[in-house]
Every structure is written in C-alpha cells, then in structure tokens.
Design a protein that fits this description.
The complex is a heterodimer of chains A (364) and B (463). Chain A has 364 residues and is mostly helical. Helix content of chain A is 43%, strand content 5%. Chain A is built from 16 helices and eight strands. Chain B is 35% helix and 12% strand. Chain B has 13 helices and eleven strands. Classes of the chains: A mainly alpha (364), B alpha/beta (463).
C-alpha cells in the first residue's frame, strides 16, 4: 500500500491523489466489489450484480489518505518503521469530498477525515457478510452455505447487546455454528478446506513445543515453492495476499461444480513436493536453534498404532481413516524402534506421513 | 466438458485409433493415441505468455515522441515523463507510419528490443485490453454494451485477461488452446507449462497446467527412502498421488501424481538440453526470476522432441508493476529486467534455430492512467503490448492509436484508455498462428464473434 507519502492534488502539475489505498481498503478490507445480502450472496439488478462503488468513489476517497508520512525523521532507528504514521497537514487534501454516502466537509483535519471514512465504511451493510464469509473460509470451510454466512453476519451486525463487529462473538458464532459442528460433514465430499501451509507449520510447532531460546525463531522466509512451504507470514506478494477467497482450481470437479478452494491458488507440483521435502528437514532438525520436543511421542513410539493414534488426534482431529492408519502402521513397523535412533526415525517418518497425507491436509 | 469439445476430442481419438490399428483393446489405443498423433506431426510451435503483474504503465513503456503527443504526455505527468531528448535513440521507425505524424519511442531501458523491432521480429500493439465487444466512449458512458466485470480491479482483470472471466475462472484461453492441440503431443500433460506458480490462463477443459520452478521440476527427497524405510517412501508417494473420497483430496492427488510422474521424464530431458551461448543477464530487478523462467522455457523447447511435444503453451511472469508510487525509480528497473529477459530469450530461440516457431507476447492486468499522482500512476484499462518472434510481422504497430488525453474521446478520465484492440482479438490471432482452425476460435475466446466486421476483425495480422 502506498499511502505513505501520498500528497494532495497539485493544480500546477495536474497530479491527483494516489488511489491505491482508497481502492483496496474498499475492495479487499471492508466491502468488496458487489453489494451483498446479509447471507453473502450478491444483490442483482437486471441479471447483473450491483457494484458497491465507482471510480469516482475511489478518486474522492483518495483525498482522505493524503498527507501521511513517517512520525519520526530519524531513519537510523526502528522507531521510524514502528510508530503509527503522522499526517503532514500541508500535504493533506482539505477540499470537500464525498464517497459512498460519506461526506467530509472542506477544511476537515486528516485525523477527523480518517475517522469519518473508516466509520462510514464500517457501517456499510456489506461489512458483516463480506468479513464473516471470509473468516468462515479461513476457519472452517471454503464453501459455507448462505444460511451459515447469514447467521454469522447477523452476529457481526449485532452481538445481541447492540455492538457491531464484536469479533469474539463473531468467532464464537463461526466455530459453534450447527454447520461447523455437524458430524456428518466429516464424511462429506466437499465440506471443509485445505489447510494453508503456514498453519500446518505452526500447528506442528505448537503441538511439539518448538521453542526458540533467543526468541529469534530462525525459520526465515519460508515462501519459496522450490525448497520451503510456498507461503510465509509478512511476505505476501501483494496486498491480495497468497490466495483469493474466490479462487477455484481450474480443471477440477471443484471448479466444474461451482465451488471454490482458495488455498489451492498456492498449491502446485513444486509447492507440494517442496513442502514435503521441507517437512522432512524441519521435523528432524527444526530451524537453527528452534527445535521440537518429541517427548510425548518417544514415550509411546515403540507402539506404532499408539503413535499414529496420537498424531491423528493431535494433528488431524481424528480425520485420518482407519484404512490409511493401517497402511501407515505397516510402513512404520519396518523401522525398528528398539534403539533410540530407530525410535526417533519412526517418529520422524510418522510425522511426515501424517502431515503429507491428504486426509490431514483437507480439514473437515 | 462442453459437448462440442467432447465430440471433437472423440473424433480426434477415433481418427488416431484407426492409425493405431484396431487389434488392441480400446483403452490401450487411447493410451497410444497421443504417440500416434505426435508421430504424424512434423512441426513444432510454442506460445509464451509473459505476464506483467500489477498493471504496466503504458505511457512510460511506449513513450509518445512526436511533438504533439509528447507535449500532452509531458503535461499530464511532468514529474514522471522521460525527457524528449532521452528518447531519440529508441524512437521507433515503423514500416507503416501512424496517422497524423504520431510517433513513439521505446523507453530507453527497452533499448535491447529495438534491434528486434528494426529486424521485423517485434510488433507493438496499441491500446489493447479486456473487452466483451467493441466499445466506444459513448457506449461506455451509457452502459449500452456489455463490459468486462470488475474493471480496474487487479485480481479480476488479471483473470479476465487470462480467462475471459473474473476471479474464480474455471479455464483460461491458453488452456483452451491446449485442449484443441494437446492430442498431438506425446505427453498431454506437457502441453501447458507454467514456470511461475499457478495461472488460470493455462488450464482448459481437458488440458491442465503443469507447474515447474525456474530450475525445472523438483525431486521428492524421500523418493527412495523415508527415514531408511523403502516401505514408508513408497507409502508417502502413494498417499500424495492417491485419490480420496473428498474432492479436495482428489485435486491434491492429481497434482501429486503429475509431480511424481513427470519428474523423471522432464528432468532427464532437461539434462539433454544443448548448451547455448546466449547469456541471460543477472536480473536487473532482484525480486524477479523472469530471466530464469524464460531460460527454462528455452531449455524445454530445445528438448521438445525428446518430450514428444509438438504444441506447447508456456506462462512466465514478473511482478511489481503496480506503480502507484516511486514510478521513476522502479519502473525503469522493471523494464530493463523485461528487455534483458525477452532479448536473451529471443536470441536463444534464434540460436536453437526455432525463432520462427516461438511467439512470445506480453500481458498485464491493465494499463494505467496517463495523469500522474504525486510520484506514480493509478489503475487504468487499455495498454500497449509487445509480440516477438521470428514469425511475427514486426517492425510496425497494430491497432488504433488512441488520443492521449485526460478526458478525451478514448479515455474514461485521467488517460485511462478504453481499449480498441481486445484481448480476444489478440488471443485469436495467436491461436490462428498456432494452428487453431477458425471454426474453433470461439472455443478459445467465446466472445470473438463480436469482433467480426470490426475495424481490426478477428485476426489482427501481427503473426
């Protein structure tokens, strides 16, 4: 995002305010491109979806985001990058502006204009379904029913005590919804989502108490799809992040059935193989000083069935089938666990097999 | 799968079947069909899409150079404009001049492309972009024609450019070309190859994208042994290439199976790639692997006979073109990186003797505004593009030169151009060269019929 350094219009040169943040704030972070009903389905008119905003709204909104600069002129300290930005009043556009029904009078200060713009967007009717649906997609299933979206959006709009956007209530509504809790979904052929690579890595780290004594967590950038996991926090290629909520993998029944699978946007031949190769390494070695503690597994690893049952429970919520577990047990039993090294090998192999397994990768 | 495509595919298979003979079981013949068809083909062609993610700034790429146009350009972006004198060395002298004395220069950082233009191997497309049908400004303003949905939005216009559909597209036109021609290839899954992740562009109804890294396919480290166990290694490969009752598991299995099945074949073929003398320069943009991607594509082309490939569609890309800020610092670097990669790629194909069998073309989300913000430009629509290759009828412009203005007849404000050359016409022209019959063009780009009888027709003629 480029509103750092964005300046007001300059009549002498004809330059206009940078539209980047004004546009993406609306498209990606708050309301999206089309007007939505509370259940997340687009509002239609004459067979076409109705846009939420026009190019004029973008241009008018861009005025609000002018004048931003660093709060500190000392570029030798981390403070400069960490402090909230400041507004340089001389570069802030103070002419009257109006967009999406939000009117900001001439002469309004940057901070007041910002608050008015954000409050106006926050109260736009699209925000509850737009945000709720994407949260459900990240937490539970790529293709929630409109009714599920509607139930969560209603909680977003009003938590029962008149508060809009109470995220604790929203997340509780997502995780405790009947559609999320329904046991029959476990055997559905389409409900659920692909776990994204970063959550797999973090899940492994949390399950086995990975620690970093120096607190540097030297995993580095794990974005490479040639030798890491193809995704890394803080390294998204653009403000559109790693994958889009509307992505569907072309050439699959997911696409032909009209469903989406966002995480497949970063899933391909190299990223799949690189993930497994990296798993093999990180499970055994950790990353630098950040090591796993497998004591919970070494205690049971001589019994392959017990080891797999534990991993199935802790990592896969019991969703790996008995058939697959039996195949894994047969393979693991070829690794003798009579020595400490053998026991470790069996544990490492078990972790790779479980975390590479499609029944683990697809969360239902 | 649409019934017409199924029927065509069936007819192709049936015809291959008769070539392969009728003594073997039907399934065996289906498997042999690809080989049979490949054996009868005698030529090779490749299409290479170079996608510039972020929306390339057209006015600082193909820079207005004659005094009239330059004056407008300079006035709309005084802080961003190249000096007119800096453009003399890269001014274009086309074989067919533009009306009204209009002239352009390549940005100085694209100088390496000038010899290709002068030799007739590079064509410049004017004001190309996404459309549903020919569209005038009056029609745009009155909303009296269908427009591409979600104009000015990155993800959707990338998708519309590649697939004629916004985010969520189920197939792209590169893949749909692959659908029609992959039966000629020994290994159908090597028809549509992506050196840069995933793109809707490369998957059709039957054709699927095969993705590799700029260094080629990568090996599964545990292919022979997992923690000393061959049984565990074997199970691992079975798991990642297996099916599954859930459709997401099935989709994962297809990807895993391709990765495992093609690794040996592709890496072995790449090992036989002939050495080439052309040097791909170190990336001017350190965040771009475009040169490495194109170098890999050249290598794959050089071993196309080992891979049994007769028609291949490649996709490569590079990013950071969303130059809302810092344009004068960043954009020249991006262009230098692009020119280095394109020139080295062309030279390599010439060295391999296949320059006239490879056509390379640029795409991007959209063009940008002509009018500057403080230090960059904002989202636009129509843009300028390049097509290069030995088969290209280059050394000239194709399309209609737009009136450069802020609020003129050809823009929707701030010089955001209304395209007059649609991506559909661009695609159909490339597909025709590639061997797609006219009767199948609507399978590749469904709206192509809307351009019959238009100013540029359904074949723009640049290749």
């Amino acid at each position: 995002m480029t509103f750092l350094g964005s300046v007001k219009a300059n009549p002498a040169t004809g330059s206009i305010p940078d539209e980047n943040y004004a546009r993406e704030l609306m498209q990606l972070f708050t309301i999206g491109l089309y007007q939505l009903d509370m259940d997340g389905t687009p509002v239609m008119s004459g067979g076409n979806p109705v846009s939420t905003y026009t190019q004029t709204d973008v241009s008018q909104g861009a005025q609000v985001w002018t004048g931003y600069t660093f709060a500190n002129t000392d570029n030798t300290t981390p403070d400069r990058m960490q402090l909230p930005m400041a507004i340089n009043a001389a570069q802030h556009e103070t002419g009257a502006t109006s967009f999406l029904g939000i009117s900001i009078p001439a002469g309004t200060s940057g901070a007041t204009a910002r608050a008015a713009a954000l409050d106006g967007l926050f109260n736009h009717p699209n925000v509850p379904p737009f945000v709720s649906k994407q949260l459900i997609q990240h937490l539970v299933t790529s293709n929630p029913s409109p009714a599920y979206v509607g139930r969560v959006a209603a909680v977003f709009a009003d938590n029962g005590s008149g508060a809009r956007g109470d995220m604790k209530s929203v997340i509780r509504a997502i995780l405790t919804d009947s559609e999320a809790r329904d046991d029959t979904q476990v055997t559905s052929s389409s409900f659920g989502k692909l776990r994204e690579p970063v959550t797999r890595l973090v899940q492994w780290a949390r399950a086995f108490n990975v620690t970093s004594p120096t607190k540097l967590w030297p995993f580095g950038n794990v974005a490479s799809s040639a030798n890491r996991i193809g995704e890394s926090p803080g390294h998204a290629p653009s403000v559109f992040n790693w994958f889009r909520p509307g992505y569907t993998p072309p050439g699959t029944t997911i696409a032909s059935d009209g469903r989406v699978a966002p995480e497949f946007q970063i899933t391909n031949e190299p990223s799949m193989i690189a993930y497994i190769n990296y798993l093999q390494s990180v499970i055994v070695n950790g990353a630098g000083e950040a090591k796993a503690d497998y004591s919970s597994l070494t205690a049971i690893g001589s019994d392959s069935q017990a080891l797999l049952d534990e991993l199935n429970l802790v990592l896969a919520a019991g969703q790996i089938s008995a058939v697959t577990i039996a195949q894994m047990k047969t393979a693991l039993d070829t690794i003798s666990a009579t020595t400490s090294a053998g026991l470790n090998s069996r544990i490492y192999a078990a972790l790779v097999l479980v975390m590479a397994s499609p029944e683990y990768l697809v969360l239902r | 799968m649409p019934s017409d495509l199924s029927r065509r595919a069936f007819l192709k298979r049936a015809s291959a079947l008769s070539l392969a003979g009728a003594a073997t079981p039907f399934v065996m013949n289906l498997a042999a069909m690809g080989e049979a068809a490949a054996a009868t083909a005698t030529d090779y062609k490749a299409l290479v899409c170079v996608f510039l993610y972020g929306g390339n700034d057209y006015a600082n790429t193909l820079v207005p150079y004659d005094n009239t146009q330059y004056g407008i350009y300079q006035a709309q972006r005084p802080g961003l404009a190249y000096a007119q004198s800096a453009l003399t060395a890269t001014a274009l002298t086309p074989s067919v001049p533009l009306p009204n004395g209009a002239q352009y220069a390549l940005a100085p950082e694209l100088a390496k492309l000038l010899p290709l233009f002068n030799a007739g191997n590079l064509a410049v497309l004017l004001n190309a972009g996404t459309l549903v049908q020919p569209t005038t400004k009056a029609q745009y303003q009155a909303k009296s024609v269908s427009l591409p949905p979600k104009l000015l939005s990155h993800n959707d216009q990338q998708s519309y450019w590649q697939a004629s559909s916004p985010e969520g597209a189920a197939s792209g036109w590169g893949g749909r070309i692959g659908d029609l021609l992959q039966s000629g290839n020994g290994t159908a899954t090597l028809t549509c190859i992506n050196a840069t992740g995933n793109a809707a562009f490369l998957t059709g109804q039957a054709a699927v994208q095969y993705s590799v890294t700029p260094a080629g396919p990568i090996a599964l480290n545990a292919r022979n042994s997992l923690q000393g166990s061959t049984a565990a290694a074997s199970l691992l490969q079975s798991l990642i290439s297996g099916g599954g009752t859930h459709e997401f598991e099935a989709a994962l299995g297809s990807i895993g199976a391709r990765a495992l099945d093609l690794y040996s074949q592709v890496s072995a073929a790449l090992g036989q790639a002939p050495a080439t003398a052309t040097v791909f320069p170190t990336a001017a943009d350190p965040q771009s692997s475009l040169g490495a991607q194109l170098q890999l594509v050249a290598k794959l082309i050089s071993v196309s006979s080992q891979l049994g490939a007769k028609r291949q569609v490649f996709f490569v890309s590079t990013g950071r073109y969303d130059t809302h800020a810092g344009l004068v610092t960043l954009h020249p670097t991006l262009l230098a990186n692009l020119a280095d990669a394109l020139r080295a790629f062309y030279d390599t194909t010439a060295e391999l003797g296949v320059a006239s069998q490879v056509t390379t073309f640029t795409g991007s989300d959209f063009g940008r505004a002509l009018t500057a913000n403080n230090d960059g430009t904002d989202h636009g629509w129509g843009s300028m593009h390049f097509v290069l290759g030995g088969a290209v009828r280059g050394g000239r412009y194709y399309g209609i030169n737009p009136t450069l203005a802020n609020g003129g007849p050809d823009d929707i404000g701030q010089g955001r151009l209304i395209p007059t050359l649609s991506v559909d016409q661009y695609a159909a022209t490339l597909a025709s060269w590639f061997g797609v019959p006219n009767s199948d063009l609507a399978t590749v780009v469904p709206n192509i019929g809307n351009y019959a009888g238009s100013a540029l027709g359904t074949n723009v003629g640049f290749v």
